Amino acid sequence: EFFKRARSKCTKADGIIVKKVIEDAIVPMIQLTVYGVEIDLLFGWIISSLSRDLNILNIPESSLRRMDQQSLISINGYRDGATILRVIPNLDNFRAATRGIILFAKRKGIYSNKFGFLGGIGWSILMAVICQKNPKASVAILLYKFFRYYTNWNWGIPVVLSLSTRVTYKINEVRDVLPIISPSKPHKNIARNATNSTKAIMLQHFEEAANSIANGNWDIWEPDNFFMRYKSYLIITAESISRMSFNRWADWIESRLVGLLVGFENLSEGVIAHLSNQRYYSTDSGFDYNCCWYIGFAINLPEGSSKIDFMAVVDEYENNLKSRFQFYEETMYVRFNHKKRSRLGDIVVFTDQTDNIEDDQGFEESTNEHTISFKSSQTTSFYHEDGSLAK
Predict the structure, then answer these.
(1) C-alpha distances out from residue 283 to 130, 229, 236, Å
(2) How many CB atoms lie within 10 A of CB 45?
(3) Which pLDDT score is estimated for 3?
(4) Cβ–Cβ under 8 Å, residues 340 and 391
(5) Does residue 40 sit in helix, strand or coil?
(6) Strand pairing category for 232-240 and 271-275
């Protein structure tokens, strides 16, 4: 009922565009743009007698315990942000430094929780800790301290804000690769989606930035070229015949991509699987409704290893996509292709096909790309002998 009424009111209001309504996600929300500003309108149930002037920071613990997990996550986004602002010694410097870090993360392609990196609250907590430890530091010093501190941090220890009450959190050694603990109860790791690969990629960027600043070079916001980092890439393409089924299918695939990274990592400690943090159009798809994601690989096998076959991971991932998706239809397709960097062709950034878009999206089909399909039994030799992927 909330989503129906909220969507109706938003679509009638001036300056508001409803991009997407997500009712069955871990965090139910309506994605909006309000006069060009992107906003996520979250929803959560509170089972209690509450007044209109409710302070969400002071919800009784008895009410919190009665809330479902989705609602807790929804309201704790606000609660975490408000708690951070209460414990920062210099808000102006914190805000300026956090804007700098978020810009850095977006330029380097390491911004987005759903792709295994960090979202806004994660970057904010990391910077807030630096501000607490350096209350009189300038913005420039805070930025340098940030990169150096987290490059050298022992990530077996959780990052926790200094609060008036003690924060307790028991680390799960398997899941908590990058433990960054939320300041609001119930305390949780807000970087639970991070993998060994995404952690290594972020720390590499931190170290490069710290060294650059130490050498007097502040050109740390230069965009990173993801498509020049690796010798070859796995391309995951989602396709369907209608916009509605495509949007559902693509969202479902995207929500499971971190699991695919973990599957690749489990094959060997020497595998780094780097997922691009946005969607792209597939230039060789025959469907009007399509998008794709790229995974670049860096391989450093232990001595004596000679071959890795990724087919089992890909097959299991595809089977799980279809069997566990309650809205799956035979007209929903997913393709996996392995291409060398030189064969990638044009890279076209995806534009959301929202409820406000009526026209179909067209593509110019590329006919001269050489593709190695993961699905063909004749081309599954995705392995290496010298630390690089097979050509």
Answers:
(1) 44, 21, 12
(2) 15
(3) 83
(4) yes
(5) strand
(6) unpaired
The H or E element containing residue 299 is strand 289-299
**195: Cβ–Cβ under 8 A, 6 or more apart, which residues?**
116, 177, 258, 261, 262, 265, 273
The two three-digit tokens of residue 277, written as one number? 């943090």
Q: For residue 266, which amino acid is it? A: N
Which residues, in sequence order, are CB contacts of 91 under 8 Å at separation 6+? 85
Per-residue confidence at 239, pLDDT binned at 50, 70, 90? very high
Residue 166 backbone phi and psi in degrees, to 5: -75, 135
Amino acid symbol at 226: F
Peptide bond into 186 cis (omega under 30): yes
pLDDT higher than 60, residue 57:
yes
Cα-Cα end-to-end distance for the chain: 54
The pLDDT score that the predictor gives to residue 48 is 63
At 270-303, the pLDDT tens digits run 899 999 999 999 988 989 999 999 999 998 877 7
Own/partner pairs for 109-113, CB < 8 Å, 24+ apart?
A: 109/224, 109/226, 109/276, 109/277, 109/278, 110/198, 110/201, 110/202, 110/205, 110/277, 111/277, 112/277, 112/278, 113/190, 113/191, 113/193
200-220 mean pLDDT: 97
How far is it between the farthest Cα atoms of the chain? 67
Q: Which two tokens stand for residue 227?
A: 């498509």
Q: Model pTM?
A: 0.81
